[in-house]
Design goal:
481 residues; alpha+beta; Potassium Channel Kv1.1, Chain A; five-stranded antiparallel sheet; four-stranded antiparallel sheet; 12 helices; 32 strands; 37% strand; globular
Length: 481
Amino acid sequence: MSVHSSESEDNSSFELENSGGHLPCSASGLDSPKLTVVVGDTRFSEEKMLLVQSCDYFRALYRSGMRECRQQEIHLKSLRARGFLIALAVLRGEMPVLDADDIVEAIECAAFLQVAPLTKHLIDLVDSDNCLLMYHTAATFGLMDLYHAAALFIRDMYVDLEAEVRKTLPSELISYVESLTPSVFMAVGTHVTCGVDENVYAASRTVCYLDETGNDWKVLTDLPLEASTSMAGVTVLDNNLYVVGGVHGVHKQVVDSCFCYSVENNSWSRIASPAQLRYNLSLVGADRHLYAIGGEYERTVMSSVERYDVKTGRWTFVAHLPRPAAGAACTRAMRRVFVCLWRPMETTEIYEYVSAKDEWRLVTTLIRHQSYGHCIVGHRDNLYVMRNGPSDDFLRCLMDCYNLTSGQWSSLPGHFANSKGSLFTAVVRGDSVFTLNRSATLEYAVDGKTWRPRRQMKGFPRSGSVWTFLLRLPDALALQQ
């Protein structure tokens, strides 16, 4: 698990490798590998380079030329030891679980020292129980990334949280939450490219959203004529929808055009295609990058993986999967990318892509009789694996949960009937999960390791496979449809 933000890595690398005397205290400050940090009555001995690379406070200190940067002992009088201890744990790659007191001290430390990995960890921990505390405390200390993330979570769960929000938060914080746009449950069916003589089919080539108030599906936008969602990779990253690859025609001819839909501009644009054209791939977005995982080309299953940098608009190959895979279940949890691979007999393996080492690391293995994982969903530090029932019984959907913090598996009680809602299309919003098929959209409330049916809404009126995801639609855009 990488504990440094890419921006921090880049900046630190440049400053330390190319200092050439630009760091005034480099000779006496950074030569020593260890630094003693005194917080209150507690002394910490830590790798100096780790602190400089991960904390803006220490990075600025060692660029300043101040007397302190030549000392081997630094006193931090404005912090509490517990908060600094939590920060060090996160910088070492741990994922500590925090109670209310821990959260306050961790936010204080993240804000004072500007510890980006700690801020990201706090964002990952936001849930229905702590979101108001996170939001209020982040506002108090000016930790703006957490402030915004907690506000978005509250907005998505506002039906459940509004009474508590109005009772506990000041008016300016309430106003900010209510100014935000909630996530909307979206779906697009399987459609091939639409040529000039096929425009009669274009009416059904639409991206739709669920109007939960009116319990009806509405059209957001039409797919571009050259786009295919048949065996394509479809995902959302930073509130933009991406469609990569896919096929057209009975001979599964690969589509070489890829597209991005911008909610902000309400428009489609082309993006570069992967160097290796592919269909039946898995597509997941994380940390300003898309990952095109496996797939097929000319009926050959591949293990290659490519990463798309949204900023540069370029694809690059990264580490191959341990073995070829097409249509592999993948997800993101705690800012980490995971994929399910099958291995006979009856074995589902979960791998994580470790970007810092450019490698796929085996996380855990699940063995179930006559059953494989067909879908994986991340919620907080839990990975939920949905699998078929015994003897490939797809009318039943069984579920197991792997906790990333404890490293333990558990089975969810009962089974889930696909006739009412296919969990193979599950999408997380806040502490809820949305699933659907043609007959129903089901929302489950996630409480610990149980999924409790919450409400049923209209199913998606399309045949074939369905892609589901979330987007934040400005009110004006939704009203236009």
